[in-house]
Amino acid sequence: MRKAGRTTDDGRRTTKRPSWDEYFMGIAELVSKRSTCLRRNVGAVLVKDRRILATGYNGAPSKIAHCSIIGCIREKLKIPSGERHELCRGLHGEQNALLQAALHGTSLKGASLYSTIQPCIICAKMIINAGIKEVIIKGSYPDSMSKEFLRKANVRMRMLTGRHKT
User: Under 8 Å CB-to-CB from 7, ≥6 apart: which residues?
Assistant: First the structure.
């Protein structure tokens, strides 16, 4: 579907282009559709110099049965969101993006991470040590410690709301 456009002086129609933030977050949203998690679909995109370095979505590791097939251990144990991350078969979208970059030898120093949700504390620690400079999110997550760690490590985190230009 084309967005509404405008007309140039010579009568040609132009389309309204998304900002870079909208573009990369839109890709993160598309990536999230590959998720196999029964609780939440998360997509992440790592970007540097307006180029995509890696993507990731949440789900079980390669060659391990997906929760969408065998069920969710967290639901069975009634574990609330944001707690006991170790009791999960899946990797987070941010983790899978970081691992894809590592698998292919891609440095993330100075990169930005677009994620459909705020990183948890485990992902925040990985983001910090990977050298990522900025995290752009669409939704919040009940983990104040991750916000604190990112702030203390001078990793900028901002919520994407409305139309933004970068």
Answer: 13, 14
Question: For residue 109, which of 72, 76, 134 has the smallest C-alpha distance?
Answer: 134
Place of tokens 């409305």: 162
Measured CA to CA, the distance from residue 91 to residue 154 in angstroms comes to 25
Token pair of 146, please?
Answer: 């991750």
- Indicate which residue of 22, 94, 134, 148 is catalytic: 94
CA distances 2 to 5, 18, 63, 101, Å, are 8, 11, 39, 32
Contact 154, 68 (CB under 8 A): no
- C-alpha to C-alpha distance for 3 and 16, rounded to whole angstroms: 6
Question: Is 148 considered catalytic here?
Answer: no
Report the predicted TM-score, pTM, of the whole model to 2 decimal places. 0.86
pLDDT tens string 1-40 = 445 556 677 777 778 899 999 999 999 999 999 999 988 9
DSSP bridge partners of 112: 47, 134
Contact 51, 114 (CB under 8 A): no
